[in-house]
Design goal:
Radius of gyration: 16 Å
Number of strands: 0
Order of helices and strands: HH
Structural class: mainly alpha
Strand content: under 5%
Helix content: 55-70%
Distance between the termini: 30 Å
Shape: elongated
Length: about 50
């Protein structure tokens, strides 16, 4: 038996605008990995978030 769970619709109209801060944070963390422990820690989380 298959159970269908209704989901809300995701906004897809301005994906580039919505994702811009996420991508910028990931890029900033990757660029700062060599000199910042915080960026080294955050880089994986931010890039995975941008990829998802």
């Amino acid at each position: 038996m298959t159970i269908v769970i209704p989901r809300h619709a995701f906004r897809m109209g301005n994906v580039a605008v919505i994702m811009a801060p996420v991508v910028a944070a990931a890029q900033e963390a990757v660029e700062g990995m060599e000199t910042s422990e915080d960026d080294r820690y955050d880089a994986l989380t931010f890039t995975l978030g941008a990829a998802k």
